[in-house]
Specification:
Layout: E1 12-16, E2 44-48, E3 78-79, E4 87-89, H1 92-97, E5 109-110, E6 127-132, E7 138-141, H2 142-148, E8 152-159, H3 165-171, E9 184-193, H4 194-201, E10 209-218, E11 221-228, H5 229-232, E12 240-245, E13 248-249, E14 259-261, E15 274-280, H6 287-291, H7 302-307, H8 310-313, E16 325-330, E17 336-338, E18 345-353, E19 360-366, E20 374-375, E21 377-379, H9 382-386, E22 389-392, E23 395-398, E24 409-416, H10 417-422, E25 425-432, E26 455-462, E27 465-469, H11 481-487, E28 527-528, H12 530-535, E29 543-546, E30 549-552, H13 564-568, H14 576-582, H15 585-589, E31 595-599, H16 601-608, E32 630-641, E33 644-650, E34 665-671, E35 678-683, E36 694-700, H17 712-718, E37 725-732, E38 735-739, E39 742-745, E40 748-751, E41 754-760, H18 764-776, E42 783-790, H19 799-806, E43 813-819, E44 829-830, H20 835-841, E45 848-853, H21 856-868, E46 876-878
Parallel strand pairs: 6-15, 28-31, 41-42, 41-45, 42-43, 43-44, 45-46
Antiparallel strand pairs: 1-2, 3-4, 4-5, 6-7, 8-9, 9-12, 10-11, 10-15, 12-13, 12-14, 16-18, 17-27, 18-24, 19-20, 19-25, 21-24, 22-23, 25-26, 26-27, 29-30, 30-31, 32-33, 32-37, 33-36, 34-35, 34-37, 38-39, 39-40
The structure holds the ligand Nc1nc2c(c(=O)[nH]1)N[C@H]1C(S)=C(S)[C@@H](COP(=O)(O)O)O[C@H]1N2 and molybdenum atom.
GO biological process, one term: nitrate assimilation
Function: Nitrate reductase is a key enzyme involved in the first step of nitrate assimilation in plants, fungi and bacteria.
Subunit structure: Homodimer.
């Protein structure tokens, strides 16, 4: 059966059985040509050749400032993770309209990081190795791979394990970005059977896995994963090393010049920019193999998964084969059908795919919520390639013997329009040859993967029209019935997609959400235009935007713990990422009283491209910008204790200084390697603020050990490779030490005669900045007493630097260490910083200021002690 409407006739071509097409001889090969038929052929079979391609030649403006500035791309692709890295899907209709094969420019892309740049002339010399548990380790160039092995061509569908994740994110946010239903694409791949290369290397006896590694260097190492060796050796599984896609050299986003293609499994196993095949006895220990592409049990919450590494180490939860899945392409989202003079029948259409080479054997549609089902027609275009044996794009196309199905199929069903008019929705489900059927309910898991419940499109009657809605729209695009149902207060997991079925009891599946604190004023409906917002980008009345809502910062300027500057630097801007990353639930709960209204849709759009302040080519004298993130590159790391490192960054040019007043701090932003979410934390650098060209940040690392969680930021910083950029923003802070006894709190100047500085652990860093400023200036009359509490001697940070600063300054400065876990040799104080210690060293003079920075417990107890000892609020400053 064939549905003429699902195919692009331009892509159909008559080819003959056993036709001998020109051998592959060109390098790099040219795009597919229309091949000529000789007339003597006996039997003609129709196979599908790729749809017309229009390779993008322009680097898009938004890519120009990213590491991918060498990659031309199609502007139709929908970006799922902001500008960079490049993770995209095509609009679902555009993808479906291309037919069975997808053009490389619309093929979905999943890049964990920057695309390695490979020049055309270097393609033949691209090297990759076969190593590990083999008798004969090999290094091959692509030229050798093509010259010395048999070339094959085969149609294969790739699907990201995150396909359809947006639906899961609507139920409960997972740790993954929001794919719509177009994270799937099909191409004719040309290359060599992976087994051929591995056979040459002769795996040893205990060899069981094939690990693969790409050339893309990421925050947690090179991208890598593994599959089982016996799968690779099984011809039915068709695993290959490919260098061509639809007859042309792989494009940069898809692994140019060489990638693995693992049919029937999730796209994540098909490693791009392939550099290494490592034969091992155990599955890959690559970070991305462990922390990506897994379906953890549904009750494992984000917290639990972060606290308990055992969930990630368990290979039972790693995804290999795809699961049975399907989606409706037509009716499209927001499509309308006229009831008056429209056609009598509506043809619903969509795609389905199975996993592990299993064939989709039925696709069923229901227009009564699953009470009754209709059987759809299926077109398995892949079967047409089984009928021929020929050379295609320089590779032998011979699938006659293979029964596995590596590709998606398209289905369609004609439904009387009047029946659709009476229906509330349209659902599809597919079943494979093992009778694996898509479930009605979603299986939610932390990473949001392998989402495959019935795909549902709602129908509403509006006058003479039927209007259709898909469950979601990809990325942050608004729309879809899931969002609508949620807004109306429906529970999406109640068993009927959040709708209230009269007479039925609500028995919702519980996916416990992290408590979301409402931040808007109830009932406030006030649209704010971009011009209004722009008028409030100054200190008269700073407004800022969080998740599309506009707030005023004016009433809170004085009390804000980060100082007025932290509000001012967000004035007129969208500060969603930072605000959400830094603020407590208590802070969020205060927001409704500052809520002014909702940003208009056009204003939202114009905010997403920030007015670029750093675009000018003038070298900037200072690095930090309080209104935009600026990038510094990691230059080196140095461990200074068992759990503390100094990270040195290079500023934009050797003459540049940081631009941080003494006593203030800055924000560091990194992307979580797993979910790409921004991680933002405040730090005080320890390098001199006047230092040129460089910046040192001391960071205490909370790494996972045994059953210990490890901090998000610590993990990300620790695995950050040298040469990688990190975002900085600032300065922020309420306090500034101007010098010689002058300081400013919230911009109001005051005099100090002495500082009492109380700190613990890495809380020393802001204290150290102020202490150094005082001690370095011989004419500064201010005195400083530092009370520094730690556990062990080795935990005392910057001890030598502190001692050095004291040299010759004994009359002005004093540093007192106290340890809770002191050894016998320790001659100094023992125990916590308590009231006696504070009483003895800090005297509540009018012109004394207490600066405090340390772990929460320390700050809490010090706060209490100081209050009891009669210190006034304004004399004490907590960093
Ligand atoms: N080297 C490398 N290979 C990779 C990735 C990557 O980020 N780096 N992403 C993987 C994932 S998760 C998917 S779904 C597929 C996507 O392939 P495509 O971008 O060609 O569609 O590539 C896989 N191979
Ligand atoms: Mo993926």
């Amino acid at each position: 059966m064939e549905d003429p409407t699902t195919q692009d006739t331009r892509s159909n071509l008559l080819l003959k059985k056993h036709d001998n097409l020109p051998q592959f001889d060109q390098f790099p090969p040219s795009p597919p040509q229309t091949e000529e038929n000789d007339s003597e052929s006996s039997e003609e079979v129709e196979i599908l050749l790729p749809p017309p391609t229009n390779p993008p030649t322009q680097v898009l403006d938004i890519d120009k400032k990213t590491p991918d500035a060498h990659v031309p791309r199609d502007p139709r692709l929908i970006r799922l993770t902001g500008t960079h890295p490049f993770n995209v899907e095509a609009p679902l209709s555009a993808l479906f309209n291309e037919g069975f094969l997808t053009s490389p420019e619309l093929f979905y892309v999943r890049n964990h990081g920057a695309v390695p740049e490979v020049k055309d002339q270097d393609i033949p010399n691209w090297q990759f190795s076969v190593e590990g548990l083999v008798e004969r380790p090999l290094t091959l160039t692509l030229r050798q791979l093509i010259a010395e092995y048999e070339q094959i061509t085969c149609p294969i569908t790739l699907v990201c394990a995150g396909n359809r994740r947006k639906e899961q994110n609507q139920v409960r946010k997972s740790q993954g970005f929001s794919w719509g239903a177009a994270g799937v694409s099909t191409a004719l791949f040309t290359g060599v059977a992976m087994s051929e290369v591995i056979k040459k290397a002769r795996p040893r006896r205990r060899a069981r896995y094939v690990c693969m590694e790409g050339a893309d260097k990421l925050p947690n190492g090179f991208y890598g994963t593994s599959v089982k060796l016996n799968w690779v050796m099984d011809p039915n599984r068709g695993m290959m090393l490919a260098y061509k896609m639809n007859g042309e050299m792989l494009r940069p986003d898809h692994g140019k010049p060489l990638r693995a293609v693992i049919p029937g499994q999730i796209g994540g196993r098909s490693v791009k920019w392939l550099k290494k095949l490592i034969i091992t006895a155990a599955p890959s220990d690559n970070w991305y193999h462990i922390y990506d592409n897994r379906v953890l049990p549904t009750m494992v919450s984000p917290d639990e998964s972060a606290n308990n590494p055992k969930w990630w180490q368990d290979d039972r939860y790693a995804i290999y084969d795809l699961s049975t899945n399907s989606a409706i392409a037509y009716p499209a989202h927001e499509e309308q059908v006229c009831l008056k003079d429209g056609p009598e029948k509506y043809r619903a259409k969509g795609y389905a795919y199975g996993g592990g080479g299993r064939r989709i054997t039925r696709v069923e549609i229901s227009i009564d919520k699953g009470r009754t089902w209709r059987l759809a027609d299926i077109d398995y275009a892949e079967d047409r390639y089984r009928e021929v044996e020929q050379t295609l794009f320089g590779g032998r196309l011979d699938m006659s013997w293979r029964e596995s199905c590596f590709c998606w199929c398209h289905w369609w069903l004609d439904i009387p329009t009047l029946e659709l008019a009476d229906a509330k929705d349209l659902v599809v489900r597919a079943m494979d040859e093992s009778m694996n059927i898509q479930p009605k309910e979603m299986y939610w898991s932390v990473l949001g993967m392998m989402n495959n419940p019935w795909f549902r499109v709602t129908i509403s009657k509006e006058g003479d029209y039927l209007r259709f809605e898909h469950p979601t729209q990809p990325a942050l695009m608004p729309g879809g019935w899931m969002e609508r149902v949620k807004k109306a207060g429906g529970n999406l997991t109640n068993g009927h997609w959040g709708e209230n079925l009269a007479g039925e009891e609500e028995k919702a599946v519980v996916h416990e959400q992290a408590k979301e604190v409402p931040m808007t004023k109830a009932g406030l409906k006030n649209e704010i235009l971009i011009d209004e917002l722009r008028k409030h980008d100054n200190e008269d009345e700073p407004w800022f935007v969080i998740n599309g809502e506009v707030y005023t910062g004016l009433p809170f300027m004085k009390e804000h713990p980060g100082g007025a500057q932290s509000i001012l630097s967000a004035a007129g801007l969208d500060t969603s990422d930072e605000f959400m990353a830094i603020h407590s639930e208590t802070a969020k709960a205060m927001m409704p009283s500052y809520h002014l209204g909702t940003l208009s849709d056009s204003a939202k759009l114009s905010l997403t491209e920030p007015a670029s302040e750093t675009a000018s080519n003038e070298p900037r004298p200072t690095f930090l910008n309080s209104r935009a993130w600026t990038k510094a590159v990691l230059h080196s790391k140095r461990a200074i204790s068992a759990d503390t490192m100094i990270f040195t960054f290079t500023l934009e040019h050797p003459e540049q200084t940081l631009g941080l007043p003494v006593g203030q701090h800055l924000m560091i932003r990194l992307r979580d390697p797993v979910d790409r979410e921004a991680i933002i934390r405040p730090y005080t650098p320890i390098s001199d603020t006047t230092r040129k060209g460089y910046l040192d940040v001391l960071i205490k690392l909370y790494l996972s050990s045994g059953s210990h969680p490890g901090g998000k930021m610590s993990r990300a910083m620790n695995s950050l490779p040298v040469g990688h950029g990190v975002d900085f923003k600032g300065p922020i802070g309420r306090f500034e030490y101007i010098g010689r006894g002058r300081c400013a709190v919230n911009g109001v100047e005051r005099k100090v005669k002495s500082f009492a500085m109380i700190c613990g652990g890495s809380g020393i860093t802001p204290i150290f900045q102020v202490f150094r400023a005082v001690m370095r200036d011989a004419d500064d009359p201010t005195t400083c007493t530092v009370l520094n509490g730690n556990r062990l001697v080795e935990d005392i940070l910057c001890r030598e630097d502190l001692d050095a600063l004291l040299q010759g300054n004994e009359h002005r400065g004093e540093v007192i260490h106290t340890l809770t876990k002191a050894t016998e040799e320790w001659a100094g104080l023992k125990g916590r910083i308590n009231e006696d210690l504070v009483q003895k060293h800090c005297h509540a003079h009018k012109e004394t200021m207490v600066l405090v920075c340390g772990p929460e417990a320390l700050e809490k107890s010090v706060r209490k002690v100081l209050r009891e000892q009669g210190w006034a609020e304004e004399q004490v400053l907590f960093f």
